[in-house]
Every structure is written in structure tokens, then in C-alpha cells.
Amino acid sequence: MFPANEALILSAILFSLGVIAFIVRRNLLYTLMSVEIMLNAAGLAFVAGSAIHGQPDGQVFFMFILPVAAAEVAIGLALALLIFKRCKTLDLWAIARIKEE
Amino acid sequence: MLLIMFYIAAIIAVVSTGAVIFSRNPVYSVIYLIISLFAVAMVFYTLGAPFLAMAEIIIYAGAIMVLFLFVVMMLNLGQNRKDEDLQAASAKALVLPLTFTTILAMLTVLALAGAIPAPHAVGTSSAALGKALFDKHFLGVKLAAFILLVGSIGGMHLGRASSTPDTKETRI
């Protein structure tokens, strides 16, 4: 009845796209965005599992993922602003080199 | 009908997530991510979770992504801003996002008009979700409240004027 198995495949694809973004992009904002993509894919897997088993617990866990993502973004973006103020860049490799010196 | 909606939303989600990774301008990435979250909300609708679809649109696409957009525009990233400002007005850059949002909006209108009824689910309806959330998992609700409290305190602390590096260096 539900396209739940296809949704699990979709969540796997989205999660791997998030991992690729995490590895490929060097900008700090993109790493935060890829964490968002991965959290969202995990939530999609939870909702698909909830549809497969006919239990609301998976949806409840998506409701818990939402505040975690909101708090993570609030603190992460505040840290990114501070890092940009201090280092004048958000390039992660450049920031790592600054820390070594 | 529901399967067609699912496949359209899934294809849009995957393509726009790919566009998030490979677009040069951070503003475009954030906008593609908003489209991707919208499409995932459609997938939630087809999975029999209309409440979570609304929560996804309101909280993820509405609040979190607007915060991202705010910070991206505040930081003014990019090598040559002049070119990007010109690019932002070009029609070529708008084709893909406009197509995606049009398709998603049409699907939303169809769903609201009743052409695509939400799948009938007993165990995973919004009422069952509310009952499970505030009965079985009430401790988790309290923990979520603590997480939000800690997040807001942390954001406030990091954003204080005295915690900026300049003032700290002058104080030392």
C-alpha cells in the first residue's frame, strides 16, 4: 500500500549524497548543510519504517530529530560566524592550516 | 496515483540534493536544499504521515533553511560578488528551481483538492502519533525541550558581543 521500500532506497540515496557533500565540499557551511541532508535522510528512513510496521514510533523519532537539527544548526551557524570573524574564511583546509601555525 | 506522486517527489529530491552539492553559489545550494526538503515532505505525505509533512515544511524548510539563508547572505561568500549578482538575475539559473517548485506546487494543490487522497492508515495516523508522543515517549519530549533550551543558550553565549575574538584580544 505504501511505497515504503522505495522510500528506504530513497533515504539511502539521500544519505550517501549527504556523505558525498560532506567529503567533497570544503566550505564549512556546506558541511553543515550536508549534516542536514543526512539527518533528513535518517528521518525519512524512520518514517518509512513506521509505515512498514504500522506503528507510530518511527514518526515520533522524526519529531525528536527536528529539535536536534534545529539546535545543531543554531550552534553550528553561530560557530561558523565566529570562525569567519576570526579567520576571514570558511574554507576548512585554510582554517586547519591556521590552527597549525 | 500515489506511486506516481512518490516517484516525482523522489526524483526531484535526488536531483535537487545533487544540485546542492555541485552548485557554486551557496545561495543556490540553500534554495535547492529547500526544494529537496519540500520534496521529502511530499514523500512523507505518500507514506501516510501528513502531519510530519507539514512539520517538515514549517520547521525544516521554513525555519532552519531560512536561518541558513540569512547567514549565507550575511557572510557574503563567494570570490567575485559582482558576477554572482549578475548571475542571480539570469533566466538560465532559474529554470530548474522554478520547474521543480511548479511541479511540487501542482502536486500540493492536487493533494489538497482531494485528487490524491492521503493513504488511509490506522496505526500511523496523526492521532496515533500524538498519543504515542505524549504518552509513551513523554520523557523524549522533555529531553527535546532541554535540547532546544541548551541550543538557544549556546547560541546566545556564542553570539554575545564579549565573546567575539576582537574584544577578547584587546582585553588580554
Detailed description of the structure:
The complex is a heterodimer of chains A (101) and B (172). Chain A is mostly helical and 101 residues long. Chain A has helices at 4-24, 28-53, 57-87, 92-100. In chain A, α1 (4-24) runs antiparallel to α2 and α2 packs antiparallel against α3. The radius of gyration of chain A is 17 Å and the shape is elongated. By secondary structure, chain B is an all-alpha fold. Chain B has 2 domains: 2-121, Up-down Bundle (Four Helix Bundle (Hemerythrin (Met), subunit A)); 137-172. Chain B contains 8 helices and no strands. The model of chain B has no long low-confidence stretch (mean pLDDT 83). Classes of the chains: A mainly alpha (101), B mainly alpha (172). At the A-B interface, α1, α2 and α3 of A face α1, α2, α3, α6 and α7 of B.
Task: Give the helix/strand layout.
The complex is a heterodimer of chains A (101) and B (172).
Chain A: H1 4-24, H2 28-53, H3 57-87, H4 92-100
Helix pairs in contact in A: 1-2, 2-3
Chain B: H1 2-22, H2 26-46, H3 50-75, H4 81-88, H5 91-113, H6 126-136, H7 138-159, H8 165-171
Helix pairs in contact in B: 1-2, 1-5, 2-3, 2-5, 6-7
